[in-house]
Specification:
single chain; mainly alpha; 6 helices; 60% helix; globular
Length: 129
């Protein structure tokens, strides 16, 4: 599990929606809080596919700073404790709200899929799947 988290990255040509789904699925398998923080950092740091989504990443980082979820420490951006993957999801969703993108489709649809992924994973965990 550790190597999966440490090596978590957006595949070349992968949509942001798919990248988020993979992050959520992996997050729901991880029980160690330090690994969850690492995964969340990998999500923020790796959400760009080359130049694609770089402006969105800037806006997400700005939003995380504005809400106290990110701090500048030792010359780099760091997630504040306790920032969760859900906090990053919320920042991404708030940045794309009202936009229709080829990959994110309708933001409300993306939010529903993300919420459903969390609920399904919680249900699976509760039922021991």
């Amino acid at each position: 599990m550790t190597s999966e988290v440490v090596n978590f990255a957006r595949a070349n040509g992968e949509s942001l929606d798919t990248f988020l789904k993979r992050a959520i699925a992996l997050n729901n398998k991880v029980t160690d809080s330090a690994l969850r923080t690492t995964l969340t950092s990998r999500l923020v740091g790796g959400m760009c596919d080359g130049e694609k989504d770089s402006r969105l990443r800037e806006r997400v980082v700005d939003r995380l700073y504005a809400t106290g979820k990110m701090v500048y420490d030792g010359g780099r951006d760091c997630l504040a404790d306790p920032t969760t993957l859900r906090d990053v999801d919320n920042a991404i969703n708030s940045c794309v709200r009202g936009q229709r993108g080829a990959e994110l489709e309708d933001t409300n649809e993306l939010e529903c899929r993300i919420d459903r992924s969390y609920r399904e994973a919680a249900c699976d965990a509760h039922q021991g799947r």
